[in-house]
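Suppose a classmate hands you a notebook page containing two proteins, each written out with its sequence and a corresponding row of structure tokens. How would you begin to make sense of it? This section walks through that situation. The first entry is reproduced here exactly as it would appear on such a page.
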Amino acid sequence: MAIEMLYEKDGSLAPLQDKTIAVLGYGSQGHGHAQNARESGLNVIVAELPGTNNFNTAKEHGFEPVTAAEAVQQADMMIVTLPDEVQPTVYEKEIAPNLKAGQTLCFTHGFNIHYKTIVPPQDVNIIMVAPKGPGHLVRSEFAKGGGVPCLLCVEQDATGNAKDIGMAWAIAIGGARSGVIITTFKDETETDLFGEQVVLCGGLTSLIKHGFDTLVEAGYDPEMAYFEVCHELKLIVDLIYVGGIDYMRYSISNTAEWGDMHVGPKIVDEQVKENMKKALAAIQDGSFAREWREEYAKGLSTFKKLYEADCNHPVETVGKKLRAMMPWLGAKEVPKG
């Protein structure tokens, strides 16, 4: 079945004109959504916790943050950009008691609606506008005159124009400049989790660490290993980004291309695909979601141990040293606090 792809010409800002939109959370996604929509001429308010870095950043950007409860009381539409694990508590304590019929709840990821850890009443719209990229790109691409493509989903249409409202928001944040794909909460949630776990994040970082360890254990310098299995990734991904796998292969040497096609499938083999199928099954049956909710409820003890171990992995310590020697990169570090 062909996908439905929409652009700016297929909608307008009209459904959100003279409305108040509350962006709940001013983190990676929130800051991009709020600033872009404000610059598109919409009336945007922000909800954030006082004393946090995000609160201070919102103030620096010209917003006067309020509580989530106050935001819901004032707004016609709420853009929920809070972390998945935090959303159910905030919904129960601050959003639900203040919801009014005809309001719109807009999510940027379908996790809590799909797995029913949040169940809104039937008299509000439930939609999703999910940019297919990090929030910092949502902001930077918009500022350059472009936009990050978005997925648009309607789970519940209480007002009869939920899709138009979602399209208006996609236009406001710049997504409709690149394209808006119509899909469902189920498909967005399951494919997004799968991509993160097996390729984009989990699969990629595991390949980097195993590749680095293999070279170092074989006696090669850690700095050489870092450049080969981590630093050069950007060059390859950039080629794939602009022209697909075929263009990447066209751009590399014949030797590299032969190694890609002949050796690559021996590394990421059918057993890896079987593991991917197991990961997908855990996403589809909800067991991954339950495990993550349980981990959060226990205080993230395992999460913190895994995170600390990876932060101290040699590929990270060596990489940090090498990046500091390349000022043109504009190397970044995770903010403290």
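The notebook's second entry, a different protein, reads as follows.
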Amino acid sequence: MSKNSNQDSHDTLDVKNLYDVIIIGSGPAGYTAGVYSSRAKLKTLIISGSLPGGQLMTTSEVENYPGFPNGIFGPELMMNMRQQAERFGTTIIDDEVLKVDFKKYPFIISTHSESYEGKAVLLCTGASPRKLGIFGEQDFAGRGVSYCATCDGPFFKGEEIAVIGGGDTAIEEATFLTKFGKSVKIIHRRDFLRASKILQEKAFENSKIQFIWNHVVIKISGNKKIESIDIKDISTGKSQNLAVGGLFVAIGHEPNTSIFKDHLELDERGYVVLKENTRTSVEGVFAAGDVHDYRYRQAITAAGFGCMAALDVEKWLSEKKFRK
């Protein structure tokens, strides 16, 4: 990659500042990367995205993040991480990236209002859970409606719990939730599961799991928290009301990678493909967190990937002698 080959192409752009590393997206991965890269004396910019702090900004108490024996609220944890990154010199801009150009160098990252140059770019845009798009879902998110059993399961001890989905994630989460719930009802729009056979067998053998086939959830109701759901038989059209204290939506995630589609390699699901450690298919572009990790999807693993990526960026810049 030549430093001078694309110099003329920048002349027509209103490019603001050159950074050693531009981190696209915040959350545990982005903020952790900011801490490490800034401590390494790299000029670092975080462009936070449409939801500064990521998914944890919409969660309530986080009990499984190390260092907080009494738990911590998701937004508070993210604000602490943000402040820590800023303390080490990270510049953080609350804006959304609309376009990237990884074919020119330095790379160009464009937001609603500005364009920035980066010697290295780190993608931390995460993934978003697929939503049902039904009445009450948004109102009760974080108040009984959850998209992560591992994160929120312990809050539903003794409750009647419903899980929506029929794939591996839904069955794994339902099985996990039997540790806490009084019972777990799996609601699936088909009369068969897509989950692996071994997971199906475990679920069928679990006395706390019940299956409701050929049904979809059409409404979520409650007062301060979820109290019931309306489900509809897709064969007959008849509906009924179920009392539940928790509803877990497990119908998959969508990686936030649409703006990278034509710029680097993605897998068939849209996740960023890593080539070596945290490196992507484009030299100088790295990725960390749920944007590539479709398996674990935890705050602690995202933070770990953010640390790894920042160290990889520092090493790459040092080897290429791009640092001033």
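A careful reader of the second entry would note: The CA atoms of residues 215 and 237 lie 9 Å apart.
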